[in-house]
Amino acid sequence: MVREEEVCDLFVIGGGINGCGVARDAAGRGLTVTLAEMSDLASATSSASTKLFHGGLRYLEYFEFRLVRESLIERETLLRAMPHISWPMRFVLPYHKDMRFEGDTPTSKLLNGVMPWMRGRRPAWLIRLGLFLYDHLGGRKILPGTSTVDLMSSPEGRALQERFTKAYEYSDCWVEDSRLVVLNARDAEARGARIMTRTRVVSAKQEDGIWSITTEDADTKKTRVTRARMIVNAGGPWVGDVIRDTVHSHSKDSVRLVRGSHIVTRRLFDHDKCYFFQGTDGRIMFAIPYETDFTLIGTTDQEHEDPTQPPVCTEAEKDYMVSFVNQYLADPISVDDIVWTYSGVRPLYDDGASSATAATRDYTLKMDHSAGAPVINIFGGKITTYRRLAEGVMELVGEEVPDLAPAWTAGVALPGGDFAVSEVESRISDLARANPFLSDAWARRLIRAYGTEAQEVLGAVKQRSDLGQDFGATLTAAEVDWLMDREYARSADDVLWRRTKLGLRLSKEQSTALQDYMTRRSVRAASAAAE
Q1: Chain centre distance of CA 211
Q2: Which reaction(s) are listed as its catalytic activity (predicted)?
């Protein structure tokens, strides 16, 4: 049966960070919004990032000053709105005389022209200049600025080879990327948006300037027709497919798919700072403390031709990343040290760049009327600039919707983020004191995931057994129930790899027990709803 409803203002295709960010912004301005995601929220690119709010230091070499400035400003704007899932991090950039540019960067070409004897090397003064710009382009207020580190005597030097004696240290921020998406979706729904996960857009047809969008629920196979005045194509890697095959647009704009892969290893160093490594091939690589006991290393840039092919970290990419960081580490690692890998596809705007690395990371927004009714296509973008991207989309919406309410999202807390950046440790202590059965690590994980909602997740409990079934690694039925009821989780993978990263800690048997529990609970809920 097909259900047909009233006309909504905006229909968003795609439940990644761009789609959920747009839905939140639009709903907060009083528009009626429907969002459809064919899988789980953040199931593709938005859960496969390097998980940083950062300005993009290397983008300065491409003279992308607008992108870097906007990103730097956004770091602290976002940090204030979500101090539970984002936090400051210091980045250590070891210096040595063999540092080189990628050969086709504008900075490299300029420097090679005026200083040919450098042969592509990055001189120390250039790095200091870049870091000076990085400190001052974005109006930094919370994060500390750049400093110099003596690697001969500091803890940061112990993990590195003895030939590295000096480093520069600067600031950026960590973010739990997939949680960021879910919290945007929750806030959008709280402001009136309809969020439909595991719902595929089957077709979109325009009639008299209004879109009729047919969707199908992946579980029930029921279809629904939603009428909308405008479509926002936030399809990520599938943005081109939506343009061609769903809305049947005549747009000439195209997407360039670039795969970025990461590896996770055992913990490689005993401090909480990140390394920014530069290779002799001109590329860069991060090594980041991850989930307490691990190190996250990435990323790569490889062309990815077909969005229907799931991105995977290839053996060549594993070897490349291991070899890259071994140029720095005092104790080399091997592929046997890898405990997990993940890959995502960046849907970049095809600007004709000569390589995947050189393709712009800036976002491009295109209003298209060629199919009859308006469609806004979103290309590219960084997780750091998702909020500003959403504001850009709303500026285009404003061309079609008179008297649109003004921008409002800057600094407005996401669910659980309504506390000061400086209060994190006190929040952890308060939660542990109110629930004596919590270990410090458990309380910290809950505050970092749920912030001021952590106690609500636990409920009115007096002892650990009140939390229900224990799945391992501090994951209990109480938390799973919250994730299913409030955060759209339907499968064990949703819980273990997107709402949390506890998949790194649970055994296969524990994961199976979790899936069995969630399946039973879903069946009971469906039966109750049918009665």
Answers
A1: 30
A2: a quinone + sn-glycerol 3-phosphate = dihydroxyacetone phosphate + a quinol
* Terminal-to-terminal C-alpha distance of the chain: 19
How far apart, in whole angstroms, are the C-alpha atoms of residue 193 and residue 389?
A: 19
CA-based R_g, the chain, Å: 24
CA angle at 235 for the pair 232 and 241, rounded to the nearest 5°: 105
DSSP secondary structure code for residue 121 in this structure: B
Domains, the chain, with CATH or none: 8-45+178-254+360-400 (3.50.50.60), 86-174+256-347 (3.30.9.10), 423-530 (1.10.8.870)
DSSP secondary structure of 457-490: HH-S-SSGGGG--EEETTEEHHHHHHHHHHS---
- Sole residue written with tokens 């948006």: 193
Q: What is the CA 383 to chain-centroid distance, rounded?
A: 5
